[in-house]
Amino acid sequence: MTGQALRSTARWGAATGMIALAACAAIEEAGRPSLDTIAQRMPAQLAGFMLGETARRPGPALALDYATANRSAVGAILVYDAPGGAAPADPRSPTIERELTSAVAEVSEAPYGRGGRRLTERERITIADPGLRCAIMTGSFGRAAVVRHVCIGAAQGRFVRVQVTMADRNPPPADAAAFAAAGLRAVRGG
Question: Is the pTM of this model over 0.90?
């Protein structure tokens, strides 16, 4: 075989591989539920948190707000597409780690006009079942000491970000890890 024939065969193989990957992505896309379907099937209660507002956001994204009955803890679930492909299911993936680092940076910044809010990352943990990577942040909102759990996982190729914010006290007012795990399982349809 000539050099040109080998290059032509290699290009054909690469093109065929890219077509196969695109076809797999299209099949996965067709098989996953819409954001509206996910919103409709989310439970009214998750690990002691009650569902509040549900909203579609640009991106496209789905945002679900939860809180405990006495609002001593608030939770949020955000479901959104992974830019440039499918979100990996492995919580130890560098892609999940980068997404978590980005989420931590986002929530570490004080909102405009709210200089009294400070949060710093204390540690990172992995919740193997169902597959979440979490950052535990501590700080204050004004004079109130708070803890915030920020977790990233994946469901049907989308990122799922779960946040829980509550007073930093012992015992904690809610189980943030249980809410995060239940939230990811619910988004997955389980």
Answer: no
